[in-house]
User: Which sequence fits this backbone?
Protein backbone atom coordinates (compact mmCIF):
# COMPACT_ATOMS: atom_id res chain seq x y z
CA UNK A 1 0.00 0.00 0.00
CA UNK A 2 1.04 3.56 -0.67
CA UNK A 3 0.96 5.64 2.50
CA UNK A 4 -0.08 9.24 1.71
CA UNK A 5 0.16 11.91 4.41
CA UNK A 6 -1.94 14.98 3.53
CA UNK A 7 -1.20 18.16 5.50
CA UNK A 8 -3.32 21.33 5.42
CA UNK A 9 -4.53 24.01 7.79
CA UNK A 10 -6.99 26.49 6.26
CA UNK A 11 -10.48 26.46 4.80
CA UNK A 12 -9.38 26.87 1.15
CA UNK A 13 -6.86 24.04 1.50
CA UNK A 14 -9.47 21.76 3.02
CA UNK A 15 -11.96 22.49 0.22
CA UNK A 16 -9.38 21.70 -2.46
CA UNK A 17 -7.95 18.65 -0.68
CA UNK A 18 -11.33 17.08 0.14
CA UNK A 19 -11.85 15.56 -3.34
CA UNK A 20 -8.30 14.15 -3.27
CA UNK A 21 -8.89 12.56 0.13
CA UNK A 22 -12.16 11.05 -1.07
CA UNK A 23 -10.42 9.67 -4.17
CA UNK A 24 -7.68 8.10 -2.00
CA UNK A 25 -10.28 6.59 0.34
CA UNK A 26 -12.08 5.11 -2.66
CA UNK A 27 -9.06 2.83 -3.26
CA UNK A 28 -8.35 1.29 0.16
CA UNK A 29 -6.47 -1.65 -1.37
CA UNK A 30 -3.89 0.70 -2.93
CA UNK A 31 -3.67 3.71 -0.60
CA UNK A 32 -3.45 4.34 3.11
CA UNK A 33 -4.61 7.93 3.59
CA UNK A 34 -3.39 9.76 6.70
CA UNK A 35 -4.67 13.30 7.38
CA UNK A 36 -2.86 15.88 9.49
CA UNK A 37 -4.21 19.40 10.05
CA UNK A 38 -2.20 22.31 11.40
CA UNK A 39 -5.39 24.27 12.20
CA UNK A 40 -3.75 27.47 10.96
CA UNK A 41 -7.36 28.73 10.78
CA UNK A 42 -9.24 26.74 13.42
CA UNK A 43 -12.96 27.54 13.14
CA UNK A 44 -13.11 27.94 9.36
CA UNK A 45 -11.12 24.73 8.86
CA UNK A 46 -13.39 22.73 11.17
CA UNK A 47 -16.43 24.01 9.28
CA UNK A 48 -15.20 22.61 5.97
CA UNK A 49 -14.00 19.36 7.52
CA UNK A 50 -17.52 18.80 8.79
CA UNK A 51 -19.13 19.60 5.44
CA UNK A 52 -16.97 17.09 3.57
CA UNK A 53 -16.93 14.44 6.29
CA UNK A 54 -13.15 14.60 6.73
CA UNK A 55 -11.57 13.40 9.97
CA UNK A 56 -8.02 14.25 10.92
CA UNK A 57 -5.80 11.46 12.16
CA UNK A 58 -3.50 14.08 13.66
CA UNK A 59 -4.39 17.64 14.73
CA UNK A 60 -1.47 19.93 15.54
CA UNK A 61 -3.89 22.63 16.76
CA UNK A 62 -1.39 25.42 16.18
CA UNK A 63 -3.61 28.49 15.83
CA UNK A 64 -2.94 31.33 18.25
CA UNK A 65 -4.33 34.86 18.39
CA UNK A 66 -2.42 37.40 16.31
CA UNK A 67 -0.05 34.80 14.89
CA UNK A 68 2.53 35.92 12.34
CA UNK A 69 3.51 33.94 9.22
CA UNK A 70 6.92 33.22 10.75
CA UNK A 71 5.34 31.84 13.92
CA UNK A 72 3.06 29.55 11.92
CA UNK A 73 5.94 28.18 9.85
CA UNK A 74 8.11 27.61 12.92
CA UNK A 75 5.39 25.73 14.80
CA UNK A 76 4.52 23.56 11.79
CA UNK A 77 8.18 22.57 11.41
CA UNK A 78 8.55 21.91 15.12
CA UNK A 79 5.46 19.73 15.45
CA UNK A 80 5.25 18.06 12.04
CA UNK A 81 8.83 16.80 11.74
CA UNK A 82 8.56 14.20 14.54
CA UNK A 83 5.17 13.13 13.19
CA UNK A 84 6.68 12.47 9.75
CA UNK A 85 9.38 10.35 11.38
CA UNK A 86 6.65 8.42 13.20
CA UNK A 87 4.38 7.86 10.18
CA UNK A 88 7.08 7.47 7.49
CA UNK A 89 4.76 8.17 4.55
CA UNK A 90 5.67 7.32 0.98
CA UNK A 91 4.63 10.84 -0.01
CA UNK A 92 3.39 13.98 1.72
CA UNK A 93 0.75 16.09 -0.04
CA UNK A 94 0.29 19.84 0.37
CA UNK A 95 -2.02 22.25 -1.42
CA UNK A 96 -1.65 25.80 -2.63
CA UNK A 97 0.21 28.65 -1.02
CA UNK A 98 -0.21 28.83 2.76
CA UNK A 99 2.50 28.88 5.42
CA UNK A 100 1.32 25.38 6.35
CA UNK A 101 1.91 24.19 2.77
CA UNK A 102 5.44 25.59 2.55
CA UNK A 103 6.48 24.52 6.05
CA UNK A 104 5.07 21.00 5.58
CA UNK A 105 6.92 20.57 2.28
CA UNK A 106 10.10 21.80 3.96
CA UNK A 107 9.59 19.39 6.87
CA UNK A 108 9.15 16.53 4.39
CA UNK A 109 12.35 17.56 2.59
CA UNK A 110 14.29 17.58 5.87
CA UNK A 111 13.06 14.04 6.54
CA UNK A 112 13.88 12.99 2.95
CA UNK A 113 10.24 12.22 2.21
CA UNK A 114 9.02 13.22 -1.29
CA UNK A 115 6.20 15.75 -1.40
CA UNK A 116 3.48 16.43 -3.94
CA UNK A 117 2.12 19.93 -4.56
CA UNK A 118 -1.56 20.18 -5.45
CA UNK A 119 -2.30 23.34 -7.48
CA UNK A 120 1.31 23.91 -8.47
CA UNK A 121 2.71 26.49 -10.88
CA UNK A 122 0.65 29.57 -10.06
CA UNK A 123 2.67 32.79 -10.20
CA UNK A 124 2.20 36.56 -10.26
CA UNK A 125 5.91 37.32 -10.75
CA UNK A 126 5.81 39.77 -7.82
CA UNK A 127 7.20 38.27 -4.62
CA UNK A 128 5.11 40.63 -2.47
CA UNK A 129 1.75 40.19 -4.24
CA UNK A 130 0.10 38.25 -2.83
CA UNK A 131 2.18 38.22 0.37
CA UNK A 132 3.38 35.77 1.58
CA UNK A 133 1.56 33.39 -0.78
CA UNK A 134 3.63 34.08 -3.89
CA UNK A 135 6.91 33.10 -2.24
CA UNK A 136 5.25 30.14 -0.50
CA UNK A 137 4.37 28.76 -3.94
CA UNK A 138 7.84 29.36 -5.37
CA UNK A 139 9.57 27.69 -2.42
CA UNK A 140 7.14 24.76 -2.38
CA UNK A 141 7.95 24.16 -6.04
CA UNK A 142 11.66 23.93 -5.23
CA UNK A 143 10.93 21.42 -2.45
CA UNK A 144 8.32 19.20 -4.15
CA UNK A 145 8.94 16.02 -6.14
CA UNK A 146 5.53 15.94 -7.83
CA UNK A 147 3.69 18.95 -9.21
CA UNK A 148 -0.03 18.80 -9.98
CA UNK A 149 -0.67 21.76 -12.30
CA UNK A 150 -4.29 22.92 -12.58
CA UNK A 151 -3.94 24.56 -16.02
CA UNK A 152 -1.71 24.47 -19.08
CA UNK A 153 -0.26 27.87 -18.17
CA UNK A 154 0.66 26.63 -14.69
CA UNK A 155 2.29 23.55 -16.23
CA UNK A 156 4.24 25.67 -18.69
CA UNK A 157 5.52 27.94 -15.90
CA UNK A 158 6.86 24.95 -14.01
CA UNK A 159 8.64 23.67 -17.10
CA UNK A 160 10.08 27.14 -17.77
CA UNK A 161 11.47 27.15 -14.22
CA UNK A 162 13.30 23.91 -14.88
CA UNK A 163 11.02 21.38 -13.19
CA UNK A 164 11.61 18.00 -14.92
CA UNK A 165 8.70 17.19 -17.27
CA UNK A 166 8.23 13.77 -15.70
CA UNK A 167 7.41 15.39 -12.37
CA UNK A 168 4.67 17.66 -13.76
CA UNK A 169 1.09 16.43 -14.19
CA UNK A 170 -1.70 18.48 -15.78
CA UNK A 171 -4.78 17.67 -13.69
CA UNK A 172 -7.26 20.56 -13.61
CA UNK A 173 -8.18 22.24 -10.34
CA UNK A 174 -9.64 20.17 -7.51
CA UNK A 175 -11.82 23.12 -6.44
CA UNK A 176 -14.01 22.40 -9.47
CA UNK A 177 -14.35 18.79 -8.30
CA UNK A 178 -15.61 20.06 -4.94
CA UNK A 179 -17.89 22.67 -6.49
CA UNK A 180 -19.64 20.41 -8.99
CA UNK A 181 -20.28 17.79 -6.31
CA UNK A 182 -21.83 20.36 -3.97
CA UNK A 183 -24.02 22.82 -5.91
CA UNK A 184 -27.64 21.84 -6.56
CA UNK A 185 -30.61 23.73 -8.03
CA UNK A 186 -33.08 23.07 -5.21
CA UNK A 187 -30.90 24.43 -2.41
CA UNK A 188 -32.45 26.64 0.28
CA UNK A 189 -30.37 28.99 2.41
CA UNK A 190 -30.15 28.49 6.17
CA UNK A 191 -28.68 31.90 6.99
CA UNK A 192 -31.67 34.22 7.61
CA UNK A 193 -30.14 37.17 5.75
CA UNK A 194 -29.60 34.99 2.67
CA UNK A 195 -32.96 33.24 2.86
CA UNK A 196 -34.57 36.69 2.90
CA UNK A 197 -32.86 38.04 -0.22
CA UNK A 198 -35.31 39.70 -2.60
CA UNK A 199 -35.43 37.57 -5.80
CA UNK A 200 -36.14 40.72 -7.82
CA UNK A 201 -32.84 42.33 -6.85
CA UNK A 202 -29.45 41.58 -8.38
CA UNK A 203 -26.94 40.28 -5.83
CA UNK A 204 -23.35 41.49 -5.94
CA UNK A 205 -21.21 39.17 -3.82
CA UNK A 206 -18.03 40.70 -2.37
CA UNK A 207 -15.20 38.91 -0.55
CA UNK A 208 -12.02 40.62 0.58
CA UNK A 209 -9.42 39.49 3.09
CA UNK A 210 -5.88 39.79 1.63
CA UNK A 211 -3.17 41.40 3.75
CA UNK A 212 -2.22 43.73 0.92
CA UNK A 213 -5.80 45.05 0.93
CA UNK A 214 -5.71 46.20 4.57
CA UNK A 215 -6.06 49.92 5.21
CA UNK A 216 -6.48 52.35 2.32
CA UNK A 217 -7.17 49.71 -0.39
CA UNK A 218 -10.04 48.23 1.61
CA UNK A 219 -11.45 51.67 2.36
CA UNK A 220 -11.35 52.42 -1.36
CA UNK A 221 -13.20 49.19 -2.13
CA UNK A 222 -15.89 50.07 0.42
CA UNK A 223 -16.25 53.53 -1.13
CA UNK A 224 -16.81 51.89 -4.51
CA UNK A 225 -19.54 49.69 -3.07
CA UNK A 226 -21.27 52.71 -1.55
CA UNK A 227 -21.23 54.40 -4.95
CA UNK A 228 -22.55 51.32 -6.77
CA UNK A 229 -25.57 50.82 -4.50
CA UNK A 230 -26.38 54.51 -4.91
CA UNK A 231 -26.11 54.27 -8.69
CA UNK A 232 -28.08 51.01 -9.11
CA UNK A 233 -31.11 50.87 -6.77
CA UNK A 234 -31.87 47.24 -7.65
CA UNK A 235 -28.54 45.99 -6.23
CA UNK A 236 -28.11 44.02 -3.03
CA UNK A 237 -24.44 43.81 -2.04
CA UNK A 238 -23.70 40.81 0.19
CA UNK A 239 -20.35 40.81 1.98
CA UNK A 240 -19.33 37.95 4.28
CA UNK A 241 -17.02 39.78 6.71
CA UNK A 242 -13.72 38.00 7.24
CA UNK A 243 -12.94 37.58 10.98
CA UNK A 244 -9.56 39.32 10.71
CA UNK A 245 -9.83 42.42 12.94
CA UNK A 246 -8.37 44.67 10.23
CA UNK A 247 -11.12 43.65 7.83
CA UNK A 248 -13.96 43.74 10.37
CA UNK A 249 -13.08 47.17 11.68
CA UNK A 250 -12.89 48.79 8.24
CA UNK A 251 -15.89 47.10 6.63
CA UNK A 252 -18.23 47.57 9.56
CA UNK A 253 -17.29 51.22 10.06
CA UNK A 254 -17.91 52.10 6.39
CA UNK A 255 -20.77 49.82 5.33
CA UNK A 256 -22.75 48.95 8.45
CA UNK A 257 -26.45 49.91 8.15
CA UNK A 258 -26.01 51.17 4.60
CA UNK A 259 -29.19 50.46 2.57
CA UNK A 260 -28.43 47.97 -0.17
CA UNK A 261 -25.52 46.35 1.70
CA UNK A 262 -25.87 43.18 3.78
CA UNK A 263 -22.94 42.25 6.03
CA UNK A 264 -22.97 38.65 7.25
CA UNK A 265 -20.68 36.38 9.20
CA UNK A 266 -18.66 33.95 7.07
CA UNK A 267 -20.92 31.07 6.05
CA UNK A 268 -20.03 27.44 5.57
CA UNK A 269 -18.84 26.13 2.23
CA UNK A 270 -22.22 24.82 1.07
CA UNK A 271 -23.96 28.13 1.82
CA UNK A 272 -21.18 30.06 0.11
CA UNK A 273 -21.25 27.95 -3.05
CA UNK A 274 -24.95 28.59 -3.40
CA UNK A 275 -24.47 32.27 -2.62
CA UNK A 276 -22.10 32.40 -5.59
CA UNK A 277 -24.73 30.65 -7.69
CA UNK A 278 -27.34 33.21 -6.56
CA UNK A 279 -25.07 36.19 -7.32
CA UNK A 280 -25.27 38.25 -10.49
CA UNK A 281 -21.72 39.60 -10.20
CA UNK A 282 -18.78 38.75 -7.91
CA UNK A 283 -16.03 41.07 -6.64
CA UNK A 284 -13.23 39.24 -4.85
CA UNK A 285 -9.58 39.09 -3.91
CA UNK A 286 -9.87 35.33 -3.29
CA UNK A 287 -8.02 32.90 -5.51
CA UNK A 288 -10.53 30.08 -5.11
CA UNK A 289 -13.50 32.28 -6.00
CA UNK A 290 -11.73 33.32 -9.22
CA UNK A 291 -11.71 29.62 -10.14
CA UNK A 292 -15.18 28.66 -8.90
CA UNK A 293 -17.28 31.53 -10.22
CA UNK A 294 -16.66 30.90 -13.96
CA UNK A 295 -17.97 27.36 -13.62
CA UNK A 296 -21.21 28.91 -12.35
CA UNK A 297 -21.33 31.48 -15.17
CA UNK A 298 -20.59 34.44 -12.89
CA UNK A 299 -18.36 37.33 -14.04
CA UNK A 300 -15.54 38.12 -11.62
CA UNK A 301 -13.88 41.46 -10.87
CA UNK A 302 -10.58 40.77 -9.14
CA UNK A 303 -9.85 43.20 -6.30
CA UNK A 304 -6.09 42.85 -6.66
CA UNK A 305 -3.39 44.54 -8.72
CA UNK A 306 -2.08 41.22 -10.05
CA UNK A 307 -3.40 37.66 -10.14
CA UNK A 308 -1.64 34.31 -10.28
CA UNK A 309 -4.65 33.06 -12.20
CA UNK A 310 -4.32 34.89 -15.54
CA UNK A 311 -6.11 32.05 -17.31
CA UNK A 312 -9.44 33.50 -16.23
CA UNK A 313 -8.51 36.94 -17.53
CA UNK A 314 -7.37 35.46 -20.85
CA UNK A 315 -10.55 33.40 -21.13
CA UNK A 316 -12.72 36.45 -20.44
CA UNK A 317 -14.22 35.19 -17.17
CA UNK A 318 -12.39 37.73 -14.98
CA UNK A 319 -11.10 41.32 -15.06
CA UNK A 320 -8.42 42.64 -12.71
CA UNK A 321 -9.63 45.98 -11.31
CA UNK A 322 -7.46 46.37 -8.20
CA UNK A 323 -8.81 48.43 -5.32
CA UNK A 324 -9.10 51.82 -7.00
CA UNK A 325 -12.61 53.17 -6.46
CA UNK A 326 -13.01 54.59 -9.96
CA UNK A 327 -11.81 51.41 -11.68
CA UNK A 328 -14.13 49.22 -9.62
CA UNK A 329 -17.15 51.46 -10.22
CA UNK A 330 -16.46 51.82 -13.95
CA UNK A 331 -16.03 48.10 -14.64
CA UNK A 332 -18.92 47.02 -12.41
CA UNK A 333 -21.19 49.68 -13.89
CA UNK A 334 -20.49 48.46 -17.42
CA UNK A 335 -21.47 44.90 -16.48
CA UNK A 336 -24.54 46.05 -14.56
CA UNK A 337 -25.75 48.41 -17.31
CA UNK A 338 -24.83 46.48 -20.48
CA UNK A 339 -26.45 43.07 -21.08
CA UNK A 340 -24.03 42.46 -23.94
CA UNK A 341 -20.94 43.09 -21.81
CA UNK A 342 -22.35 40.92 -19.04
CA UNK A 343 -23.22 38.08 -21.42
CA UNK A 344 -19.68 38.00 -22.85
CA UNK A 345 -18.19 37.33 -19.43
CA UNK A 346 -20.96 35.10 -18.09
CA UNK A 347 -20.78 32.79 -21.11
CA UNK A 348 -16.97 32.60 -21.37
CA UNK A 349 -15.60 29.07 -20.93
CA UNK A 350 -13.93 28.30 -17.61
CA UNK A 351 -10.27 27.25 -17.97
CA UNK A 352 -10.05 25.53 -14.60
CA UNK A 353 -11.03 21.95 -15.29
CA UNK A 354 -13.76 19.36 -15.72
CA UNK A 355 -14.30 18.06 -12.20
CA UNK A 356 -11.93 15.06 -12.41
CA UNK A 357 -8.67 16.58 -11.15
CA UNK A 358 -8.58 14.49 -7.96
CA UNK A 359 -8.80 11.26 -9.95
CA UNK A 360 -5.82 12.31 -12.08
CA UNK A 361 -3.80 13.18 -8.98
CA UNK A 362 -4.47 9.80 -7.38
CA UNK A 363 -3.62 8.03 -10.65
CA UNK A 364 -0.30 9.89 -10.80
CA UNK A 365 0.49 8.92 -7.20
CA UNK A 366 -0.26 5.29 -7.99
CA UNK A 367 1.99 5.41 -11.04
CA UNK A 368 4.86 7.03 -9.16
CA UNK A 369 4.78 5.09 -5.89
CA UNK A 370 2.92 1.89 -6.74
Assistant:
Amino acid sequence: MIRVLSVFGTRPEAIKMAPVLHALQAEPARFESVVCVSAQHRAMLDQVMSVFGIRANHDLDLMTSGQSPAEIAARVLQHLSPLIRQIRPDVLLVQGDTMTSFAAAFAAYLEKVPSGHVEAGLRTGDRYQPFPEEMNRVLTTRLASLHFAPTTQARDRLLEEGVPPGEVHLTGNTVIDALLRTVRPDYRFHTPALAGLDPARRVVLVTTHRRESFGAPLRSTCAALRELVGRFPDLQVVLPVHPNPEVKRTVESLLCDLPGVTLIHPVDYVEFVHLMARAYLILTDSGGVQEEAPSLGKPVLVLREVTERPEGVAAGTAVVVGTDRERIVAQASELLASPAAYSRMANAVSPYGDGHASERIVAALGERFG
Remarks:
- DSSP finds 16 helices and 13 strands in the chain.
